[in-house]
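Before our next group meeting I need something from you. Please put the record directly below this note.
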Amino acid sequence: MFRKRLTYGICVGGLLLLPVAIFLKNETIINWTPSEPRGLYLEVKHSQMAEICLTGEQEQQAANSGETFLLGRCPGGHSPTLKGLFYATKEDPVVFSEYGFNIGDRLLINTAPLSSSSAGIPLAHIQFKKYDQGIFAISTHNSHSYDSRYFGTIESSQIYGYAFPIFAF
């Protein structure tokens, strides 16, 4: 009964927000990927969360691990993926270990590298070490997200836009 009410509430909430999305048109992002909470996001000038487009090589690596993509506006023809951004610097390095990503002295949840993808295909991860430069695109929402654990850092040119959640579930 609770699940039915929850589903109903999400549907009604989504329908109520649909006019807002239509009104804002180009300023809204609908996230269907499991990397971050699904829902409606407002496009903003800067945020810790961003839509990124994978390079052709990164997209091929993801496809080889069993990832699938929706069609979209990225150069490779796929949809951008929503990830949290973390910038590594000499003063504030990003450390990647068998436990996951550490930013400062904080271990990010759901970032430990997995040995295989959801499809059961072996995954190769980046080197365990301290990184003092680069932009990391990381999901702390979904431990099975295909993110910087596997494809490494991204270039600023891969950032398609920034997002702020309006209605996420």
In short: Helices lie at 2-24, 56-64, 148-151. The CA atoms of residues 28 and 42 lie 5 Å apart. Residues 25-168 form a domain with the Umud Fragment, subunit A fold (CATH 2.10.109).
